[in-house]
Amino acid sequence: MQQSGDGFGGGTSPSRGQRGAIPRQKPLFSQFTALSVDQRHTFVACLLGWALDAFDFFILVFAVNAISLDFHAEVRTVTLAITATLALRPVGALIFGWAADRFGRHPTLMINVICYSVLELCSAAAPSLTVLIVIRALYGIAMGGEWGVGAALALESVPKESRGAVSGLLQQGYVIGYLLAALLFGLAFDFIGWRGMFVAGALPAGLVLYIRAKVPESPVWERRPARAGELGKALRSHSGRFLYLVLLMAIFNLFSHGTQDLYPTFLIKQRGLSPHAVAAVAVIYNLGALCGGLTFGMLSERWGRRRAIGGAALLALPMIPLWVLAPGTAALAAGAFLLQFMVQGAWGAVPAHLNELSPGAVRGTFPGLAYQLGNLAAAGVSTIEAGIAQSQGGSYALALGATTGVVALMLAVVTFFGPEARGVDFAAAELPELQGPR
C-alpha cells in the first residue's frame, strides 16, 4: 500500500506477519565476506570517502586553540570556521546529491573527493582568520556532498539483510576520520603546526584513483536514474517526512558536534592536558565510538532503527558526569569512551534509517539534504557552548554536560515518535509504508 501526501498518513503499517520473521543475524565478519568483490570495493571506497572527509573536518577541531593564538583571536571567534563549514553543507548535499541522482553516484563521488581535498590544501595557506573562515565555508559545500552520495552508493549495492551492519560500519568513517585527526595532532602537530596538518589533509585526493579503477556504479541507479524535476516533486509530495528527517538530523548533529567539537579545547584549556595527552584521550573515546556504532548498527537490524537509536541516546545520560567531571585523566578517558560509545551507537543506524525513509529515485539527494539541513540547524552548537563556558568563568564542563543531557533526551523522544521503514525494497521509487508511531 502506498503512502499518500507527506508520508505520515494514508495507509496502515504492515503487520508483523506481513513484514516476516527477522532472520538470524550473521556475525559482522561473515556478512562482510559474503559480499561480492564489487560490493566490497564499493563499501571500502564509500567508507574511506567519508572517513577522509571527516579527517579533513576534524583537523580544524584539533587546531582551534593554535589558530586562535596564531591569529590573536578568541576561541569563540575561531569556532566560526566550524560553524561556516556546517552551515554550507546543505548546499553541497543539494548540488552533489542532484548530480548523483541525475548522472550517477560513481562520477559524482570522484568529483566530490577532489573538491574537498583541494580546499583542505587551500586552508593551509590562509593568510588571515577571515580568509580561513571563507575557505572552510567552501569546504563545507564539498563536505556536505559526500555523505549522501557515498551512503546511497554503498547501501544500494549490498543485500538488504546486511544494511544494519553496513550502516554501522559506514557511519564509523566519521569516527575513523576523527581518530586519524587525533593521531596526526598528537604525533605531528609539534613538528608541522596547524598549517602542516591541513597539507596532510589534502592526501585523500588519491582515493579517486581507487574509485575509478575498482568501484562500479550503483545497480539501483542504473535501473532507474532520476528524471528532470523529480527532486522538486519528491520534496513537495513528501514534505512532512522530509521536515521530520531535518528535525531528527538537527538533534543528531547537536548530539555529535556538541560532544566532540569542543572536547579537545575543554581538555586543553580547563583540564590543562598536553597535545599528546589530548590525542591519547581522543584515540580512546574514538575507539568507544567505533565499537558503539558497530554494535548498535547491527542491533538495529533486530531491534529496529528507532529502538536502537533511542536506547543509545538514553544510555548516554548516566555517562555525562564521568565524561566532564572525573578527577583524573584516566577516568575522563573512560567517561569519554562510554559516552561516545552511545553517541556513535545512535548514529550507527542513521545511514540505513535515512535511506530507507527516502524515495528511491532521489536517494542521492533526499537523505543527504535532510542530514545537512539538520547540520545547518545545529551549526552554531560549538559557538554556543563556547559562549556558555565563557559566561560561566571558563567552565566548558558545564557547557558540554548541560547541552548533551538536554539533546540526548530530545533525540530519544523525537526518534520514538517518528517513522521507520526497515527492510524496504530500494528498487522502488515510491516511499514505503511506515512502521511505528506516525
What descriptors fit this protein?
Growth Hormone, Chain: A, 21 helices, 438 residues
Describe what this molecule looks like in 3D.
This protein is mainly α and 438 residues long. The chain has one domain: Growth Hormone, Chain: A (Up-down Bundle), CATH 1.20.1250.20. The protein is 74% helix and 0% strand. It has helices at 16-19, 28-33, 37-70, 75-103, 105-124, 129-156, 163-171, 173-200, 207-214, 219-223, 230-237, 239-260, 263-270, 275-303, 305-316, 320-325, 329-347, 350-356, 366-377, 381-391, 396-416. Helix 6 runs antiparallel to helix 19 (366-377). Residues 1-22 have low confidence and may be disordered.
List strands and helices in order, with pairings:
Layout: H1 16-19, H2 28-33, H3 37-70, H4 75-103, H5 105-124, H6 129-156, H7 163-171, H8 173-200, H9 207-214, H10 219-223, H11 230-237, H12 239-260, H13 263-270, H14 275-303, H15 305-316, H16 320-325, H17 329-347, H18 350-356, H19 366-377, H20 381-391, H21 396-416
In short:
The chain contains 21 helices and no strands. With 438 residues, it is mainly α.
